[in-house]
Amino acid sequence: MDQRIIPAIWCNGTADEAARFYADVFREGSVVEQAPGLAATVSIHGFRLSLINGGDQYAPNPSLSCILNFDPLLFGGEDQARAYLDELYERLSGGGVLMELGEYPFSPRYTWVRDRFGMTWQLMLTDPAGEPRPFILPSFMFGGTNHANAEEATEAWIALFDDTRRGALRRYEEGGPMEAGTVMFTDFTLHGTWMAAMDSGTFHDFTFTPGVSMIVSCRDQEEIDRYWAGLSAVPEAERCGWCVDRWGVSWQVVPHNIAELMADVAVREKILQMGKIDLTRL
């Protein structure tokens, strides 16, 4: 199944270096697309991640991270899953540790780290019982100005996209760090890709930015129009296929052959002058 929604990391001139780093760090990692100096795409255990050179205006923050699901069934047993988790902890924590490696109520082995390019990763040993999940899940954390918006946002995205469903939904109870009923954890699919979300249990002074965006690969103009109408809520942020929804999440609503189009200098210049991409004008 094609991955039609791809996280994109904003890089300060380091997209090529970051692509090589991720391809080397993960056991099943490779660079699958590259426009030197502009962008690159890596495959990590079959999951695609894009890297875009955009200068120093933005940087990733923990509001949009990736969960690495160390399910023993994916790695030949618990010992092997723990060993790979510890290996990646050493290699992905070059930018700091947000939550120390250890045992938590929700996982016997978990950590949240920042790599040297600013991207944050939640490494979690999981229980193999129950419905399986893939190795990588993009994860949205709703805090600060987005306090308690996780359920509203995910419901709206599930209603908008195709091939969607909600999986787990766990709520905070009375006496917890958040109001009872807010989302402790949920996961869901958009275009068949598993993602996760939660309401932050503590206050944070950061929220979503273009530092990590979500690329939506569209088959035709009809899909571009549909997703643009359902996502774009900040007119001043509309530029060359980028838009921002009402929770501040940045989306790139682009045709499936965007890399090919951007390789043509004349076409690229036209796209850079657009808000919503109009294929009839290319």
Give the SSE layout:
Layout: E1 5-11, H1 15-25, E2 29-35, E3 39-44, E4 47-53, E5 64-70, H2 72-75, H3 78-92, E6 96-104, E7 107-114, E8 120-125, E9 136-142, H4 150-160, E10 165-171, E11 183-190, E12 193-199, E13 212-218, H5 221-231, E14 242-244, E15 250-255, H6 258-263, H7 265-272
Question: Can you walk me through this structure?
Answer:
This protein is α+β, with helices and mostly antiparallel strands and 282 residues long. The chain folds into three domains: 8-55, Signal recognition particle alu RNA binding heterodimer, srp9/1; 62-197, Signal recognition particle alu RNA binding heterodimer, srp9/1 (2-Layer Sandwich), CATH 3.30.720; 206-281, 2,3-Dihydroxybiphenyl 1,2-Dioxygenase, domain 1. The chain has seven helices and 15 strands. The longest helix has 15 residues, at 78-92. It starts with a strand and ends in a 10-residue tail after the last helix.
